Amino acid sequence: MLRDNDLKISLRASYDAHVDERNDKVQTDWKLAERGTFIDRLGASNCCVLDIGAGTGPDSLVFRELGYRIITSDLSLPMAKHCRGTGLNALQMDYYAIPFPAVTFDAIWSLNTLLHVPLRSLGSVLDELRRVLLDRGLFFLGCYGGSGQEGTFDKDHYEPKRFFSFKTDDDLTRIAADHFDIVDFHTVDIGMNYHFQSLTLRK
User: Fold this and answer.
1) CA-CA-CA-CA torsion for 132, 142, 199, 153, nearest 10 degrees?
2) Is pLDDT above 90 for 97?
3) Can you give the pTM of this predicted structure?
4) Using 50, 70 and 90 to split pLDDT, how confident is the model at 1?
5) Residue of 141, 86, 89, 87 lying closest to 117 (CA atoms)
6) Could you give the number of structural domains in the chain?
7) Strand pairing category for 195-202 and 181-188
């Protein structure tokens, strides 16, 4: 079993080589709907939002356009550099150890990022995210899951092949509830052998 640090090194290398591919992806309607619902819940546009695992920053750009103070982050330095090129305040960041003081952010946005965190480590990552969130702050945790499978998959065209943790609904909500209040949980059928898990949490 690979240690978390080895998984992160491998994952960083996987995404470093795919900036252009990720930037060309078009967001699906259901992802736009999830983001819109979260923004409606968040309300005031002067909020400070942390986007973790932002990739090339499509969601961060929308938060910025709406007037939010957005900090964009990704494990991949080329991804972070791309975001800086669009004018975003972006940094390379490991969400296991966030380089910000406690109670810094009004909200955290995480779309298909924590599916790379092993089940055994999810609690410690949520502890770190809770640390930097203001009291009563909102956290959107969205990821593919449902099957309970963990590991790399032969069909993945990224090299090195990425580690995925497709957590069951019960495991995800159980661990999340140990760290946050659950505002909403629902799944989205995306026509695959897994579904999308949408969690809105409050500190």
Assistant:
1) -110
2) yes
3) 0.96
4) low
5) 141
6) 1
7) antiparallel
Task: Give the pLDDT confidence score for residue 175 in this predicted structure.
Answer: 98
**Long-range contact set of residues 26-34: C-beta below 8 Å, sequence gap at least 24:** 27/58, 28/190, 30/188, 30/190, 30/196, 31/111, 34/111, 34/140, 34/142, 34/188, 34/196, 34/198
Sign of CA dihedral 51, 2, 22, 79: positive
**Do the domain assignments include residue 126?**
no
Residue 130 falls inside a structural domain: no
Strand pairing report for 90-92 and 150-151: unpaired
- DSSP H/E element including 196: strand 195-202
Helix (H, G, I), strand (E, B) or coil at 111: strand
**Tokens coding 146:** 């449902």
Whichever domain contains 141, its CATH number is: 3.40.50.150
In a domain, 56, yes or no: yes
Rounded Cα distance, 140 and 28, in Å: 17
Domain membership flag for residue 191: yes
**Structural domain that includes position 193:** 4-120+135-202
Gap between the Cα atoms of 48 and 51, Å rounded: 10
User: What digits encode the pLDDT tens for the residues 14-66?
Assistant: 999 999 999 998 899 999 999 999 999 999 888 999 999 999 999 999 999 99
Strands 69-74 and 48-52: parallel
